[in-house]
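Quick one: Cytochrome P450 from Lotus japonicus, structure tokens please.
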Amino acid sequence: MDLPLVTLVFASILTFFILKLLYNQTQNSTNLPPGPRPFPIIGNILEPGRNPHIALTKLSKIYGPIMTLKLGTITTIVISSPQLAKQVLQEHGQIFSSRTIPHSAQVYDNHKISIAWLPTNAKWRKLRKVCATKVFSPQVLDSTKVLRQQKLKELSDFVKEKSSKGEPLDLSEAIFSTVLNSISNTLFSMDLSHTTSDEKSREFKSIIEGAMGDPGKPNVADFFPILRPIDPQGLHARMTSYFVKLAKIVDGIIEERMCSRADSKISNDVLDSLLSEIEETSSQLSRKEILQLFLVGT
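--- reply ---
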């Protein structure tokens, strides 16, 4: 096949997809709320700008409290009044309770087992109950009050030490370590981060920051799902790497804890409570779900 023919075939395919996108945009606009006229292909993706809350407020004054935005190929309905928000989220909460799952979050079965992404089905209710009774219950919070106070004292001592030595301090990093260790001690009775800048601690903190931050980043593959297989921004690949590393860490902690439980060593933390529930009730709670509970706590 010579070059001119290849070019012709490619141009024909590209033209077909462009026409299909334009046709879908026209067809899908029927019976939708008003909104700014979308550009071909990109739609209204430029409308939100760098300050979406300000841009949407201005648009609502033009098009009303309910409007349509075409973000790439994704049709989005924006609600901007308290009355309509109450009607949608409270009176029809069951219908609108699910959420769009970013492509970067669809890794390691995350979207199938995470309480953050599941629809309100039986599995979601099971995990929500575990969170309410084993992670965020008043009893658990009261029992870890001393631990939280201890971690705050460690943070205060660390800041004082840096100040007395006249050394620079990244306060946000120190606070992040304190919060992370408060959670990891509640769940696993161990520190997973340190205020000292050792390589292992920095790597772990970067994994947590990435796993929590990347799903919230704008991703072109979410606006143009046809691009998902090539993952143009690499967010899906990075999230896969984060979760594989986190799973390895959590699996190691669980294995170590199960060995210590076999020797009758009980830590009375959240992990012990979960393992006891699995043993006593034949619960189907998996290690992946325990990892998700750790991320929810974080």
